[in-house]
Write a structure and sequence with these properties.
The chain is α+β, with helices and mostly antiparallel strands. Helices cover 33% and strands 10% of the residues. The chain has a 3-stranded antiparallel β-sheet, with helices on one face. α3 packs across α4. It is globular. The termini are far apart. The mean pLDDT is 82.
Length: 136
């Protein structure tokens, strides 16, 4: 039983975006490039790195490694025309100065939703920003 395979190119395989064109091109978004680079960081939990691109503002979700049982969860996004994070931050700071009791209430509700797996908008829960707006 003999199988004949076509000749294989001796060129090195494409490793970066733009090496190939057309349908064989390597398409890598800025989020994927950053996520790949973050995998080399020793302060991050490598298993926690997730790229979520099918949202209004694409996000990279990461968590820090356990440091005295304090894990920090981060959502990283890029500035774009759909991104209004800095304006939202100004509004949140202003509201927190005017109504200081919002902070503890939002933190309690965030923990309540987190315990029930309902604190991530892309899986059907509420985002922290949405929760803050509901309370304010």
């Amino acid at each position: 039983f003999v199988i004949c395979l076509p000749a294989v190119h001796k060129n090195a395989p494409a490793t970066t975006p733009g090496d190939l064109e057309g349908r064989n091109a390597i398409n890598e978004t800025n989020q994927k490039i950053l996520a790949r680079k973050l995998k080399g960081e020793n302060w991050l939990d490598q298993r926690s790195i997730k790229v979520i691109e099918r949202t209004a503002v694409p996000v990279i979700k990461v968590s820090t490694k356990d440091s005295r049982s304090r894990i920090v969860q981060l959502d990283l996004s890029f500035d774009a025309k759909e991104h209004h994070g800095l304006e939202a931050l100004d509004m949140i700071r202003h509201l927190l100065e005017e109504i200081p009791m919002i902070r503890p209430l939002v933190l309690v509700l965030k923990q309540f939703l987190l315990d029930r797996g309902l604190l991530t908008a892309y899986t059907g829960g509420l985002s922290s920003y949405c929760l803050f707006l509901m309370v304010a």
